[in-house]
Amino acid sequence: MARPVTIVGGGLAGLTLGIGLRQRDVPVTICEAGTYPRHRVCGEFISGRGQAALARLGLRTVLDEAGAVKTLTAAFFLGAGATGPRLLPSPALCLSRFILDAALAHRFRELGGELRAGRRHQETFGEGTVRATGRRASTGENDAGWFGLKIHARNVTLTADLEMHVSPHGYVGLCKINGGEVNVCGLFRRCANENGEVINGRDRLRGRPGSTLHQRLAGAEFREDSFCAVAGISLRPHPAAGRDGICAGDAITMIPPVTGNGMSMAFESAELAVAPLAARSKIARDCDAAFARRLAWAKWLQWIILTPALPAPLVAVAARSHWFWRVAFANTR
């Protein structure tokens, strides 16, 4: 009989890894501090290789049955500049995390996995324990100001299936999800405006008065039960081989959210850990090899977008150049 595995963290990576191991008859226990279902700060946008990883694990049908929406077009906005709707090189899937987490947890339990929700892991991370506890806490001054907000909304009309609205202090993504709703998710650099006044989270997600984002959400009906926030986000890439123990998902490293590839990397890292039930060093090397180029491109793109003098020329180039659009998309997936 295979040796049992304990996974600490029941998010996307933890649940997917648990499902993959149960498909191979490995005894698995997942320890999740939160409960199911619940809302999480997330772009709720799955693009790139993650869809293929889900298909290989037999989980693509789970998303379809849960009501995932196919996303075909995207547009970027910065002040008065915009790329206009552009076809994505390959379709993405959008689905509420509230529904997705519940569906994956149900599938894990169906396969005989033990899911201990609402409790924290009290033991040390020894052999046979996988850390899938999500993002790293911020430890440096350059990361300290980042925080994320999310809420679902109705009565929102988009010009593209995914819209990214960039401001001097961060960005907000709008994407169509299941049930006719739109996910409004933002990453921001600091909590106060230029006068030192704290801005209400919902007002920050709405954007500045007069902006395209503010116009988009002028008639929005926000679902207050879906509002959530997270602070202390570190966006610095960290090689998996430098971590103690076996890790999966954001516990390895976190890609800048502007690329919309974080959910995909969670699924991919879980699959990389499942297949051979490999030794810790092999899993780390595989993850580093799979994600290194993506992280480098994402870091470069995010730096450009958040450098005040550069986004406007970038939007102008992206609006005219099909080549730039395809290269930027392909190298962050």
Features:
333 residues, alpha/beta, five-stranded parallel beta sheet, 10 helices, single chain
Explained architecture:
The chain is an alpha/beta fold and 333 residues long. Helices cover 32% and strands 24% of the residues. The protein is built from ten helices and 14 strands. Strands 3, 4, 5, 6, 9, 10, 11, 12 and 13 form a nine-stranded mixed beta sheet that branches. Strands 7-2-1-8-14 form a five-stranded parallel beta sheet. It starts with a strand and ends with a helix. The relative contact order is 0.18. The model has no long low-confidence stretch (mean pLDDT 83).
Which blocks of ≥5 consecutive residues have pLDDT under 50?
Answer: none
Query: What's the helix-strand series?
Result: EHEEHHEEEHEEEEEEHHEEHHHH
Mean pLDDT: 83
- Main sheet: strands, sense, barrel: 9 strands, mixed
Question: Could you say which overall geometry the principal axes of the C-alpha atoms support?
Answer: globular
Topology, number of strands: 14
Q: Which percent range fits the helix content?
A: 25-40%
| N-to-C span | 37 Å
Beta-strand level of the residues, as a percent range? 15-25%
Our Rg estimate from Cα atoms comes to 19 Å
Briefly, what is this?
It is built from ten helices and 14 strands.
Layout of SSEs?
Elements: E1 5-8, H1 12-22, E2 28-32, E3 45-46, H2 50-56, H3 60-66, E4 69-78, E5 81-82, E6 86-94, H4 97-110, E7 114-117, E8 129-131, E9 147-154, E10 162-167, E11 170-176, E12 182-188, H5 201-206, H6 212-216, E13 221-231, E14 246-247, H7 262-274, H8 280-305, H9 311-320, H10 322-330
Parallel strand pairs: 1-2, 1-8, 2-7, 4-10, 8-14
Antiparallel strand pairs: 3-6, 4-5, 4-6, 9-12, 9-13, 10-11, 11-12
Helix pairs in contact: 1-4, 1-7, 2-7, 7-8
